[in-house]
């Protein structure tokens, strides 16, 4: 067995003395652990006795003993009758040679991480306060006081049992409140037992993919369309087929059904993201009929449907016909606030028996007080009043943004996005590089998203900017649009845009 090393020398520098006993113990523990991992304390080498090391370091023997015990508990050392030895670690320790070790390389076979890496990073999300960022509601207008009262009531009246996991499918009270709200506001046909609480729309989409598809099966996605749906299908090893979107929404042809029959069809019929198109009633009924004929399931993401700024609300596709093969998805991220992380999935009655057990394995329940507070918020009428206020606010903001774009965007453009939701889409001629404009805009604390980044198979017409107005004040629109206009002109002529 190797002789005890000179630990005082191996510890590189004296322990700091202006610390309490616990801090001295942590220092010694970290130094010894690092020496073992670095290979300076070789496997099998015997450490000095606690008394000898304490005298060498001029510290308390109890400090050394506690550090040794901590290392032993973690498996770095092994006490025996002859003292304390360094354990033979399962992974090779670093050597003291200067030989350059090869870097870890990713495996040659495809992995989930590699598939997801092919999606363009959402760089705008690194700037939470940036203007024109799509998908962010008017956070400063949220009724925080009313929400705090709902949370207080939930915590005050709930039993200690609510600190546990709870029903994996969600709190029964919230599921009932959502079912009631959807029946009135969206024309959704469902019972509370059909509602599943998820952590936002993204988890709900992922649940649909995991429950209803096998690797290699075909999934249709809108093109251009929501990138989160692409992420979920990629993670599920699905074969994605992009279906073009026009002024009437998803445009699936008879040839598409014949050549690429899908297992899942993802669509945003009430307010297509990002074009803003509304799926026409003829296409809705045809999609349902063809899905039934081919044994496919439709994932209806009811994106931004609560914020329609003109005319009557457009009802959900799920409620058009009885027993439609539609899984309906919604979220409170836009109607409440994103960090709440509450969404929901409405399952068709025909699926309940077969998916309940898998769902209970996938989900564990949680956010129980927030769920109870959300139920209270809906039942008390606060949610409905909040939606009414936000509809008026977003209607005014969209009108103001349209006016600012018409007046100050001095490049050829067309405004899409419909009269709904929290964003407008500005289409630009292909000579204006939308990704370059978006990257330059971010340097100026503006966060529009390039339209082309939403398409799997971009066309020249898929060039433009998606502008969120939900969390941007009206008085900022004119100067911000002027800035975008300068950046667009710079991108066209090849300038850097930094002086715009």
Automatic annotation (TrEMBL):
Q: Which residues form the HTH gntR-type domain?
A: 22-89
* Record keyword Transcription present: yes
SMART domains xrefs: HTH_GNTR
Q: Which SUPFAM superfamilies match?
A: PLP-dependent transferases, Winged helix' DNA-binding domain
* Gene3D superfamilies attached to this UniProt entry: Type I PLP-dependent aspartate aminotransferase-like (Major domain), Winged helix-like DNA-binding domain superfamily/Winged helix DNA-binding domain
Keywords, in A-Z order = Aminotransferase, DNA-binding, Pyridoxal phosphate, Transcription, Transcription regulation, Transferase
Q: Which Pfam families match?
A: Aminotran_1_2 (PF00155), GntR (PF00392)
Q: Where is this region: Disordered?
A: 79-114
This entry's Gene Ontology molecular function terms read:
DNA binding; DNA-binding transcription factor activity; pyridoxal phosphate binding; transaminase activity
The record's InterPro entries line, in alphabetical order, gives: Aminotransferase_I/II_large (IPR004839), HTH_trans_reg/aminotransferase (IPR051446), PyrdxlP-dep_Trfase (IPR015424), PyrdxlP-dep_Trfase_major (IPR015421), Tscrpt_reg_HTH_GntR (IPR000524), WH-like_DNA-bd_sf (IPR036388), WH_DNA-bd_sf (IPR036390)
Which PANTHER family does this one have?
HTH-TYPE TRANSCRIPTIONAL REGULATORY PROTEIN GABR (PTHR46577)
Q: Which family does it belong to?
A: In the C-terminal section; belongs to the class-I pyridoxal-phosphate-dependent aminotransferase family.
Q: What is this protein called?
A: GntR family transcriptional regulator/MocR family aminotransferase
Q: Which organism is it from?
A: Variovorax boronicumulans
């Amino acid at each position: 067995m190797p002789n005890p090393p000179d630990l005082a020398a191996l510890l590189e520098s004296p322990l700091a003395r202006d610390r309490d006993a616990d801090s001295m113990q942590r220092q010694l523990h970290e130094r010894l652990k690092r020496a073992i991992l670095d290979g300076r304390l070789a496997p099998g080498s015997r450490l000095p006795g606690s008394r000898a090391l304490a005298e060498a370091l001029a510290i308390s023997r109890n400090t050394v003993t506690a550090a040794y015990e901590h290392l032993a508990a973690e498996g770095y050392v092994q006490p025996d009758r002859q003292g304390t030895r360094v354990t033979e670690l399962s992974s090779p320790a670093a050597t003291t040679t200067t030989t350059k070790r090869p870097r870890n390389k990713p495996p040659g076979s495809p992995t989930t991480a590699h598939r997801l890496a092919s999606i363009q990073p959402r760089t705008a999300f690194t700037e939470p306060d940036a203007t024109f960022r799509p998908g962010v509601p008017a956070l400063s207008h949220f009724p925080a006081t009313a929400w705090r009262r709902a949370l207080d009531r939930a915590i005050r009246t709930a039993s200690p049992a609510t600190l546990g996991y709870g029903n994996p499918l969600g709190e029964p009270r919230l599921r009932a409140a959502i079912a009631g709200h959807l029946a009135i506001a969206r024309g959704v046909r469902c019972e509370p037992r059909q509602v599943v609480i998820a952590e936002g729309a993204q988890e709900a989409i992922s649940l649909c993919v995991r429950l209803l598809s096998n690797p290699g099966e075909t999934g249709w996605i809108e093109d251009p369309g929501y990138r989160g749906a692409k992420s979920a299908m990629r993670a599920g090893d699905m074969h994605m087929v992009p279906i073009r979107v026009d002024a009437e929404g998803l445009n699936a042809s008879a040839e598409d059904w014949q050549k690429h029959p899908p297992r899942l069809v993802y669509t945003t019929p009430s307010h297509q993201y990002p074009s803003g198109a509304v799926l026409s009633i003829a296409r809705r009924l045809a999609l349902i009929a063809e899905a039934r004929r081919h044994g496919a399931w439709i994932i209806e993401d009811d994106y931004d449907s609560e914020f329609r700024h003109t005319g009557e609300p457009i009802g959900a596709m799920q409620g058009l016909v009885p027993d439609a093969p539609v899984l309906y998805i919604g979220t409170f991220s836009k109607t409440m606030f994103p960090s709440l992380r509450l969404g929901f999935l409405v399952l068709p009655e025909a699926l309940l028996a077969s998916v309940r057990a898998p769902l209970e394995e996938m989900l564990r329940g949680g956010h129980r007080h927030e769920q109870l507070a959300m139920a209270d918020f809906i039942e008390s009428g606060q949610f409905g009043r909040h939606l009414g206020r936000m509809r008026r606010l977003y209607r005014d903001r969209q009108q103001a943004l349209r006016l600012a774009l018409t007046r100050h965007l001095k490049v050829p453009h067309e405004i899409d996005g419909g009269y709904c939701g929290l964003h407008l889409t500005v289409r630009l001629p292909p000579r204006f590089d939308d990704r370059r404009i978006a990257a330059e805009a971010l340097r100026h604390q503006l966060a529009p998203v390039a339209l082309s980044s939403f398409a799997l198979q971009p066309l020249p017409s898929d060039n433009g900017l998606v502008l969120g107005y939900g969390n941007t004040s009206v008085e900022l629109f004119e100067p911000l649009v002027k800035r975008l206009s300068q950046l667009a002109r710079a991108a066209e002529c090849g300038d850097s845009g930094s002086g715009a």
